[in-house]
Amino acid sequence: MKIGDLVVEPVHDGVMKMPATAFQGTTEERWAPHQRFLDDQGRLEFALGGFLVRMAGGRLALVDAGIGARSGEIRSGAGYYQGGELLNSLARLHVRAEDITDVIFTHLHFDHIGWATQDGVMTFPNAAYRCDERDWQHFRDNERVQPILGPIEDRLSMWAANGTLAPGIDAMSAPGHTPGSTILVLSSGTARGMLLGDVVHCPVELLDDEWSGMGDVDPELAKRTRNALARELEGAHVPVAAAHFPGMVFGRLLAASGRRSWVVD
Ligand SMILES: [Zn+2]
Description:
Blueprint (H helix, E strand, L loop, with lengths): L1 E2 L2 E14 L8 H4 L11 E12 L5 E4 L7 E4 L4 E4 L3 H7 L9 E3 L5 H4 L3 E2 L2 E2 L5 E5 H7 L6 H4 L6 E4 L3 E4 L2 E5 L8 E7 L2 E5 L8 H4 L11 H15 L6 E2 L9 E6 L2 E6 L1
Parallel strand pairs: 4-7, 7-10, 10-11, 15-16
Antiparallel strand pairs: 1-2, 2-3, 2-6, 3-4, 5-6, 8-9, 12-13, 13-14, 14-15, 17-18
This protein binds zinc ion.
C-alpha cells in the first residue's frame, strides 16, 4: 500500500484462530450475514504481526511487533495461536532487524509486543521504541508484558498526547481497548491512511454499531471510540488496516442507503 511517499507492508508473524462467538454477545445467527469474515469451519482467523512503514530518507518503522515465537490454545482447544515468522517476513522484505529505526506500539497487549525483546535484549537494537504512557502504566506489571518490556524499560520513550511520532506517522488517541490504545494516522502530501491497532479486530465491528469488541479494558469506552471511528471513516475513502485483519490488507468503509460495507483495496 502506498500513501503518498510512504510505503506500508504487512509483516506476518503467524495466525490466531478461534470460534467466531469469541466476540462477546455474538451468536451464530448474528454472524450469518457476515460469513465472508469466517473460515470454512465458521472460525475467525486473525492475522498476527505488524506493519513496516518505509518513510522518506530511509527511516523504517515497525508498527507492532507480533506475538513472538510462541503458540498456545484458546478456549480449551477450540482455537489456537501460533507466531514466530516476523523476522523471516522482514527478511523477505529485505529488511534486517538492525535496519528498523522506529518500533511503535499501538498498545501493549502481548500479541503486539512479542518480538520487542528476546531473552531481555532488544530485537531491533537501533530502533527507538515508543508506546503510550497510559498503556505502560496499565501494563508494566502485567505477567505477559513485564518479561518482554520490563528489561528495556529505560529504552522506552512514551507519548502522552496526540502528535507526530515519525515523519508521516501521527498518534491519535483511541482509548477503550486499552487505556492508551492509539490509531496511527499515516499522511504524505494529501494522501492519508490509518493503522487501527486493536480498536477494531475484524471489519465487522465497523459495520454494526452494536457489535461488541474483544478483550477491551473498558468495553463501553471502546464501543464509543469504534463508533466514532466508523462515522469518521464511512465515505471518507481513507484506506485503513488493522493488525488482525485477514491478510493484514487495507480496506475502506463505504456507506450507501444507510448501510455500511467493507471493501478491500
Ligand atoms: Zn491484538
